[in-house]
Design a protein that fits this description.
single chain, Rossmann fold, 4-stranded parallel β-sheet, globular, binds ligand LMY7XDAE, NADP, THF_DH/CycHdrlase_CS, purine biosynthesis, EC 3.5.4.9, histidine biosynthesis
Length: 283
Amino acid sequence: MSENVINGKQIVADIRGKLKEEIDLLAAEGFRPGLAVVLVGEDPASAVYVRNKAKACEQVGIYSEVHRLPAETSQVELLELVDKLNRDTKIHGILVQLPLPKHISEDAVIDAIAVEKDVDGFHPINVGNLSIGKPSLLPCTPAGVIEIIKRTGITISGKRAVVIGRSNIVGKPVSMLLLRENATVTVCHSRTENMKELCREADILVVAIGKPKFVTKEFVKPGAVVIDVGINRLEDGTLAGDVDFNDVVDTAGPITPVPGVVGPMTITMLLHNTLQAAKALRA
Ligand SMILES: Nc1nc2c(c(=O)[nH]1)N[C@@H](CN(C=O)c1ccc(C(=O)N[C@@H](CCC(=O)O)C(=O)O)cc1)CN2
């Protein structure tokens, strides 16, 4: 493995170790953070992510419960469960795994989660607070991306950052967070002209476009930090990021492989958010 390949295992172990220490202290005082995860339907990838979230909670001492509902669950039934969890005092964080079946409005469900328990950071009030720089629960993948970049040792302030992708879950919030860190941010998307040229100016390149191996070395300034948020399952069953890792690795500076870094960091930031939410609700 080249030296510039970011070691996700080490970062995740470090952060989870610190979370566990803090959670153990709270537990000694008789207080335990609690997370409820809701999974509707049988999407196999979502089932894996939910299982991993429950395992990660156990690892750091967070109480967790998983609500597995059939795909035919109605929106009303799901909203009733969210309402119950909003009022449950042993639950400090609520996460409804996305995507939801087509007949359920994701917006309606996200809007129904209590803002202070929205550990996904997807509620419009948390999104609004992020965009105006007020403290809020931050979306897990974008917060994880910023943490990974900081741990490379580079200073984000003043750097040119390019984000490929403008989704509500990753592209937009990661751009806001980079801006908050005083980067000069450009957001590229499917209609962007001269994308390669723009990307080649980036000191930090974050890729979340959902197209396997889209970014090749022609997009990358030598030495740039490259963070790959894509998780694409190929026909042969293997996973690939949005970055053509083998093509880019010798040009980039610190670079994230897929799998192994951004995904596990997403879950780690969920643990972090659950602890933050629990402390705020306890105060
Ligand atoms: N309510 C939410 N739904 C979804 C989110 C989210 O943040 N909140 N993000 C994604 C899925 N996701 C978290 O839920 C997620 C995706 C991937 C991983 C991960 O650890 N990936 C591994 C590879 C795992 C595999 O073998 O498939 C890796 O990258 O190393 C964690 C979480 C959409 N839905």
